[in-house]
Every structure is written in C-alpha cells, then in structure tokens.
Amino acid sequence: MASTIGNNDRLTQLKAFDDTKAGVKGLVDEGVTIVPPIFHHLPDPHDATSNAHAAIPVIDLAAFSATNNDEAHAHQQLVAQVKAAAETVGFFQVVNHGVPAELLPRMLASVKSFNEEPADERRPYYTRDQARRARGLAAQLLALLSEALGLHAGYLQRDAGCLDGPSLAFACHYYPPCPEPWLTLGTTRHSDPSFLTVLLQDAVGGLQVLLGGRWVDVPSLPGALVVNIGDFLQLMSNDRFKSVEHRVVAVPPGAAARVSVACFFRPSGAATSKEYGPVPDLVKPPEAPRYRSVTGVEFLDYYRQKGLDGRSALDHFRLLV
C-alpha cells in the first residue's frame, strides 16, 4: 500500500524520522496529536469483518507424538487439520505447543518494558532458550506440513533444509495508541518471505488476514501461538499451501499498546545461496511446476527491493503454465 505523499518527500521525511532513533514511540512520548504524512496510507478496497473465530482454526498439537494405535489415529487427524489450514486459510493457531505457558507473558512483558524505557536506555532482549524452544516448535510444524504434502515427516527440515543455518529471526513489535488510526496502519498489507512464521500476540489484537476479499480478525487466545505459511512454502508446495496476505491495524486512542513477538523461519547465512523450488514429488505429470527455482538471497533481495506494495513477491518467480 502506497503512502499518500510523493516518493522524494517521503524518503526525506523517513530519513529525518529514522535519524531520531526514537521510533513511533518517540512521537507518542512527544505528545503527537496528528499522524505524520509519511505514515498515511490510501484506503483499502477490502472490507473488514470480525467473524474470525470460525475462519482461523485452532489446532491442538497434543497428538503430535503418537505411541499407540489410538494416538496414531489422533496424529493423522492432526495432520489433516494442518493440511486443511495450510491449503485454505494459510493461518492457524496452535495450543499445547510445548512452549511453557509462563514464558509467553514474560516475553511480551520484556518487549513492553523495553519500549517503554527512555529511548537512550533501551537495550535488546534475547535468550538462547527462546530460540531453542522456537526452533523445536518449528521442527514439529515442518514435520506435520511434510506429512500434509504426502512426504515423509523429515522432508522439509532435513531434505529441503528449511531449518538450515541460523534460520530464525525474532521481530519484537510495539504499537502505541494512534491519534488518527483511520489514516494509517500498524503494519501494511504483506505476505511473509519465510518458510513459516510463528507469532505471539497479546490480548489487544489487531492482526487481520485477507480471506475471500475481506479482512478477517485473528482473535487473541491466551496461551496460543499464531502460525502462518510463508512465501517459500507456497513456492515449494507448488501452490498447495497458501501464503496469505495480512496486516496489523492501528491501535485506537485510549487503548493499551499492542505487543507481539514474531519468529520468522527463513533462509539465512549459507542457506541463502541454496536454490528452492517446487518439491519434485509434487510436480510429477500431469502436474507442472508453477515457479522457477530461486536462491534464498535472490528471493529476499527482490522482496526488500519491491517493498510492501500490496503485491506478492511470488508473482515475480511464477512460470506461465
């Protein structure tokens, strides 16, 4: 989505804003009452709806580890649920995911306290333990998604290398109340350049998914994590899985600040030189590849150069079939 001011003016104003190193929270601390033009966005043509509870499935991962026939049946049902979500909505929430319940509010509290410190006293929050637990959950999800594609459980992690290298990037977001929320967005419309993304959000909400031409709210469920399919998995699955566009709406005046922690699993380090394309077993005749193979660095460079303009980066690599 484009800003409502010219590109040159926007770049000048963005540089001046970045040079303050205080972020949007700095504007709030200064008592800003109007949204600066660099944050204005054109009206979205899609309507919004709050009928999300049926649209975004909630999946219980308790049946992931099967040890007997009854549990094996429950595991197959779990794979079927993940398959249905990945092929249609592209988003789902997971419970009984193995991340300790007490850790989730601590992570959100750390992000909130960091952003509410004076600008010159802020410092990063990161622990190896959080990264280890996030990678463990991603391994479970990739196993389920592999089975959902009819592949062996280790395919996406081991054969395709979706967790190779330092593949995890944390993004901690803090959205303060906005004086004119109708003029802007917390995060503009986009899909993720990842294999998959795992999100922890607080009770404020604001995440919306574009489904059937309408913006659908993703409800905040205590103890749940939001999972969405990324662009790389849509490409590798040859469009069986959907990397769905989403956004974050601005927080209205008087509401609490929105806090979230996103974990992006995407090619990084040496893995960026690897080529990713449709899985060979998924493009046997009569099925044809819908995308050309692309290195991680080529895809990510194009995504950054394109910017969040409301167009999917996948279209650039799509084959005419």
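The record above closes out task 2.4. Task 2.5 opens with a second protein, given below.
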Amino acid sequence: MDDLIPTSIDDFVEDFLKNALEVDVLDYQKVESGGEGYTVIYVCNLNFDQIEVLQSVGFEQIKDDLWIFNGFEIEIDKLKDTPVIKYFENLQREEWTKLINLRCEVDHNFYGKIKKLYFEVHITLQKSP
C-alpha cells in the first residue's frame, strides 16, 4: 500500500468532484465521534462514471443522493482503474488539439503578413541583442 497517495476529503470534494468531474455536490459534512470519522456528501444527478468514481475510492451509497465515506482522506491512486482516467486523457487530448490548432492559425496569419513562419522570426528576435 505504499503507492497510494492520500488527499484530504476537502480537496477531493472541492477540487476534484466539483471542479474536475462537475459533480453537483449539494453539501458535504465531516462527522467525528469516538475517534472515528465519516464524510457524508449529498449529490444529485450522478452519471454512471461519477458513481463509479465514488465507489472506487470507498464511498457507499446510503440513499439516492446520500453517500458516506469512512474517514477524511481519499487514496486517489484507487482512481487508476476508473473511467475518470479516460475522461482526463480525452480532455488533455482535446486541449492539446485546440492549442495545436491555435498555433497553426498564428503561423498561417503571421506567414500571410510577412512571408516567414512565426517560429523563425521569434527565434531571431530572441537572439537579437
């Protein structure tokens, strides 16, 4: 178990579930009693992949919109075998494609104006004293 990376439940809910996976988290609370801690989250309209992510890190579904987790730290390495990895790979691919297309557009527009590729001019400008 040395390869598992724990992260706080707050980071997991706020940064990962809400922002990255766009889960509609209505509320979440951390409850501690007798040395044991639980995290309860209220969510709605989960799709299959989001449900699989919650289950893979250890959340248990109590009701349709209520999930409970034993503890306050998530071992995010458990997400390796979930659809979330494919989601981020696709997102990364889409963003790189956008970036490459923008670069091609800049090169095309720049070349159309001065008949040199932007990259060549940029390197020349960097070498100038």
